[in-house]
Amino acid sequence: MEPFLDRAEPRVGRGQDRRTAMTRLAYLTSCRELAHVESAGHTVIDPVTGASLGYRMCLVEEICRALTRGDDSALGQVGLVGVFTDDDPAEVEHIWCGRPPWRSDLRVPAHAQRAECPIEALTHHLSSLSYRALVRAKAPAALRAEAKAAFEARLLRALREARADVLVCDSYMLILSENFLRSFPGLVLNIHPGITDPKDQGWLPGATPTRDAFTRARYGYVIVDDKHAVPHPAGRAIRVEYEGRLRDAIDVGVIGRSGVTCHRVTAIVDGGPIVSEAIYNFDPARASEEQIRTWNYPLKLPVLTAALHVLGI
Q1: How many domains does the chain have?
Q2: Which CATH number covers residue 79?
Q3: Beta strands 78-85; 23-29: pairing state
Q4: Which residues of the chain form beta strands (DSSP E)?
Q5: Residue 283 is assigned to a structural domain of this protein
Q6: CA-to-CA distance for 16 and 141, rounded, in angstroms?
Q7: Is 244 domain-assigned?
Q8: DSSP 249
Q9: 33 burial level (CB within 10 Å; 0-12, 13-18, 19+)
Q10: Whole-model pTM over 0.85
Q11: pLDDT at 70 over 80
């Protein structure tokens, strides 16, 4: 089953559609989300239907393949200069089990400043584990801020060493601070697997847009007790049982609608200016969470490509 694409081609915001010299692009992710939750780099079986949903190709693998094709209409003027994760090496070993969330033989094409190389040569694990442990322990705010600043300082150094012009966040599970956004000299974009336009009936910011798109489509509610950094759709407050737990939710009515958004990263979580988006409607009765994720994944590269075009990159 394929969804009905509300916009078959990504819709872009205002900007100039022009190309300049090569842009140095860096990719930032959290592999504990990308590999463990989203099953990128693997053949996915829908746990609800038992059907195979095929190989789930993550965005950085799609970028490498587009660059290898040398398609100027896609990413021909971009060079990938770094793949960064905020995972601890021990987490990487546990989550990946010896296999990354992209094909192990993946190679990054050459560009003007570098020869072709395996993706491992450009991959850097910059652990945010100390900060995340303090958050889980509900440590004093000052300690958490200090740990986060230390992690972001390491990330900034790595990006500067790579001379990155654009940082693309994809399945990155931390909130970049205002200090980081002021300090990074380039452009920071986020690929959000949902709709971030609050005027759209399918609006779903936050860390769980795929789950929320599913519960809204199947049951007519959105779980809100884990939404501390973002607003949520308006509706009647209810209590629901979801996956064996009682949860706070909002009754919003059944809506079968999702998509992928590329927006500039600002201090407002998932609230930065939209650069491009691809939105579709689907049959609520036939969708599962993994099916929605499978529909979203192939939209990421076209949405990113459209954003780079409109930004003149």
Answers
A1: 1
A2: 3.40.50
A3: parallel
A4: 4-5, 11-12, 23-29, 43-45, 52-55, 78-85, 107-108, 117-118, 123-125, 166-170, 187-192, 221-223, 236-242, 245-251, 257-264, 274-281
A5: no
A6: 42
A7: no
A8: E
A9: buried
A10: yes
A11: no
